[in-house]
Structure formats: C-alpha cells, structure tokens
Amino acid sequence: MQKLLVAALSSSVLFGASVSLAAGDAAAGKAKAAVCAGCHGAKGVSANPMWPNLAGQKDAYLVKQLKAFREGKRQDPMMSPMAKPLSDADIDNLAAYFSSLK
Q1: C-beta separation of 32 from 89 below 8 A
Q2: Is residue 85 part of a domain?
Q3: Please, which residues have CB within 8 angstroms of residue 17's CB and are 6 or more apart in sequence?
Q4: What does the pLDDT look like over 44-101, one tens digit per residue?
Q5: In this structure, what CATH number is given to the domain that contains residue 87?
Q6: Is residue 12 situated within a structural domain?
Q7: Residue 32's Cα: distance from chain center in Å?
Q8: Does the structure show a pLDDT above 80 at 10?
Q9: H-helix or E-strand containing 64?
Q10: Does residue 17 belong to any structural domain of this protein?
Q11: CB count, 10 Å around CB of 7?
Q12: Alpha carbon separation from 82 to 1, 52, 85 (Å, rounded)
C-alpha cells in the first residue's frame, strides 16, 4: 500500500496532477456555501446558464479551480474576489460539499 501511495504521489509530481491526501468536511463546506447559492444555486445547480453547476463535480476539479481564482491564475470579476479570502481548508470543505451533491 505504501509503495502504491508513493507511486501515485510521484506520478502526480511528474505530470502536474493534484493529489489530495486529506478530504474536506462536507458539513463545514455546506455552511460556507451559503454565499455561493446566489449564483450557483442552493444545491449547487444554477438556474442561470452563465454560471456552472457545482453539484456532483469532482472535488479535485473544484479545488483546482477555486485555488486558480484565489491565486489569480484564473480571473473572473465575480469569482476572483469571492475566492481570494478562502483558506485551503475552506476550499477543501467547499469541494467536499459540492462533490457530494447529485
């Protein structure tokens, strides 16, 4: 098992993939997600085609996108300021919550 984990981590470094060793807390993410509901819907399903559905997205994808907004690698006039104050734990928790929704 340890060799498998080392191999996975090594390949993630070589190929730039993101491996999350600690899953977020979906309950904490749900509490933090109240502000997201205005655009992305109360259950992560947007009523407006301009904003993506977050429900059911893979947590690694959500983490990557939120960090890109926070760090300025991805920019949007609405999302960038929303992501800026998020901690890594906040991002992990939000990703856990939205990925748990169907």
Answers
A1: no
A2: yes
A3: 11
A4: 999 999 999 999 999 999 999 999 999 999 999 999 999 999 999 999 999 999 999 9
A5: 1.10.760.10
A6: no
A7: 12
A8: no
A9: helix 59-71
A10: no
A11: 10
A12: 39, 15, 7
Task: Work out how many domains the chain is built from and give that number.
Answer: 1
From its phi and psi, is residue 74 left (phi > 0), alpha (psi between -120 and 50) or beta? Answer: beta
Two tokens, residue 12: 């993630």
In one-letter notation, the amino acid at residue 30 is K
Token readout for 21 is 């060793």
Residue 73 lies in a domain: yes
CA 5, CA 39: separation in Å to the nearest integer? Answer: 38
Tokens of 76: 């949007």
Domain that holds residue 87: 24-100
Residue type, position 82, single letter: M
